[in-house]
Design brief:
single chain; two-stranded antiparallel ribbon; 8 helices
């Protein structure tokens, strides 16, 4: 098996660089991928809000709160789930702030960004659940693009593989288990998640299209947000369970990221169940002449 791992050709080569130098500044591809994802999420969400009668510019007002809170939450979550990378004898504690080196966690970004969204939507006078429904597919697209940054940082890969799409990783990467044979290729989890996220965005859009065809409101009930949480949480739980990454383990050997992903998926199921319950309550009662329309 080891021999196969050594000679297997890499369809996905390891990137030779992770940044470009422009004068005294380093422009990191990781940061560019995140910025590109944010721009796409803003554009997609603005278009979806405009389609339901809200000015597209409101998404920029909300993003001014969501983005900094999201980045802060992402960094805090990463540091807390990777304490060994930052807290050890002789460690330079200032590295906790070196976000340009990589190391931000999407779950932290979601939690922090949610705080910013609540603040931003209240100031903008738009229902928070409506905004989150509008954001759902754009968020998945943004996360997909952001995974390209993980590729350049060589930080999101799974166990060794002999499959044709094996990913080459620099042998010095800290997540590679000691004793791994030279030339070993790994599952490209960044690519798996990228494709999973794009598929999830398509699923949300298709489900909304189906509801529109039946004359039902698609945004504001939490359905799209529920699908997002369920889809992303379920996929991420699987990928995190096989990811080679020194994430802090909880009791029973469960990774913190796996637990968070499962919680997200459960919350998604809860949102979908609640939206369906509200729809049944508001549905017309046959035989009573009730002309109420299901707003869900």
């Amino acid at each position: 098996m080891d021999a196969l791992l050594i000679v297997a050709p890499a369809l996905i080569p390891s990137p030779g660089i992770s940044f470009v130098q422009v004068g005294p500044f380093q422009i990191r591809f990781y940061a560019l991928a995140i910025l590109a994802g944010i721009v796409l999420a803003v554009l997609i969400t603005g278009r979806r809000l405009r389609a339901v009668g809200h000015p597209a510019g409101v998404v920029v007002d909300v993003a001014m709160w969501a983005v900094p809170f999201g980045i802060l939450g992402a960094r805090i979550y990463h540091v807390l789930t990777h304490p060994g990378d930052y807290f050890f004898p002789g460690a330079d504690l200032w590295r906790v702030l070196y976000i340009w080196e990589g190391g931000i966690a999407i779950f932290g970004a979601i939690l922090g960004g949610l705080v910013g969204i609540v603040i931003g939507t209240r100031r903008a006078g738009i229902p928070v659940l409506l905004f989150l429904d509008a954001l759902a597919p754009g968020m998945l697209v943004a996360q997909a693009v952001g995974r390209l940054g993980n590729y350049f940082n060589q930080e999101l890969f799974g166990p060794p593989t002999t499959l044709p799409w094996g990913l080459q990783i620099d042998p010095s990467a800290p997540a590679i288990p000691p004793g791994t044979p030279a030339g070993t290729l790994f599952h490209p989890l960044f690519l798996y998640e990228l494709l999973w996220n794009l598929a999830g965005a398509a699923v949300i859009v298709l489900l909304e299209y189906h509801r529109r065809r039946h004359g039902r409101i698609t945004l504001g009930a939490g359905r799209s947000l529920g699908v997002y949480l369920l889809w992303y949480g379920a996929g991420r739980a699987v990928l995190e369970s096989i990811r080679l990454d020194p994430t802090e383990l909880l009791a029973g050997g469960l990774k913190a990221n796996v637990l968070t992903a499962l919680v997200a998926a459960v919350l998604g199921v809860g949102l979908l169940a609640h939206a369906s319950w509200r729809a049944r309550r508001r549905a017309p009662v046959r035989g009573r002449g009730d002309a109420r329309v299901d707003p869900q």
